[in-house]
Amino acid sequence: MKDPFRTIEWKQDHIRLLDQTLLPLREEYIEIRTVPEMCDAIRRLAVRGAPAIGVAAAMGIALGILNARDDDRGAFDTLFGQVCSEIAATRPTAVNLFWAVERMKAKAAANLDVSELKKVLVAEAVLMEQEDRMLCESIGRIGSILLDEGDTVLTHCNAGGLATAGYGTALGVIRAAFEEGKKIRVFADETRPLNQGARITCWELHKLGIPVTLIPDNTAATLMQRGRIQKVIVGADRIAANGDAANKIGTYSVGVLAKYHGIPFYVAAPLSTVDLATPSGNGIPIEERDPCEVTHIAGVRIAPEGVPACNFAFDVTPHHLIAGIVTENGIATEPYEESLRALFAQKGSPVRS
Ligand code: MRU
To answer: Residue 96: CB within 6 Å of ligand 1?
Structure first.
């Protein structure tokens, strides 16, 4: 089935993206025409989810050099460096963003005329968008084996088509199993404070006709205790070399709960989310966002004035809680140090130190 929306798209001289902050009440596409606009879209989560942020970063860079003068390579290089720095400063946790910046830098190092370089960089950004969708479809096909007929699967946050260029990672696995004819049901954690589960995962699954039930974040334990959840599958923003996986805040608690109840907990992500240069989860930078996202809901204050709030956007699930990491090259299992590296060693893997 075709995706019922387009997360992000290159349009000759601008970028079109679905503003995810407005979902599910409004389905509105916005046009991004400048680098500050793209940085703002990434920061305020109009475009979000690690792989989608990577594509947005690459397209933002391509946009930023589009109007550079064709006769001054030195000026082009300076501008390119500034644009890359601005994009890289938007959000710290999703490694796909930095992976995309590095990939664009490698292309920009070519000894070409500025006019040629511009074409090469636009083509690379567009290619990354196309590749990402294909990778997600592979992740779905490979991971669907983990889901059995009749399973009810818990997911946290949104790792669907909207968090990628299309199809999704964790939701891609669910979607592939569903498309194979398995009867799969989903529990979606609401995912406080920004409610990506309630607003986005439920919207996506509902559009795809996959049965989904929304639950408050504090309901997973009781559902597991009652035997109502057979599998957990989530996405990731950065996976360290030892398999520790950073994902939306609250994922770690779900991992602990799953272990306690003997429920397999899987992570699905492209290899561009695996950061072999970071040995363990301790080295993953965790974004802290505005406390207002916790003290307010839709602009309405829910906590007393003067009470501080803690707003980590991500947490790290230790590798020993993870039953498998589904990638486009196969499923890694313990010991992740070895299995993740082996997946990278396969042909066609993204280059990473
Ligand atoms: O803050 P967000 O909405 O960008 O966080 C997104 C997540 O945590 C996703 O689960 C993760 O990026 C995986 S997306 C395939």
So the answer is: no
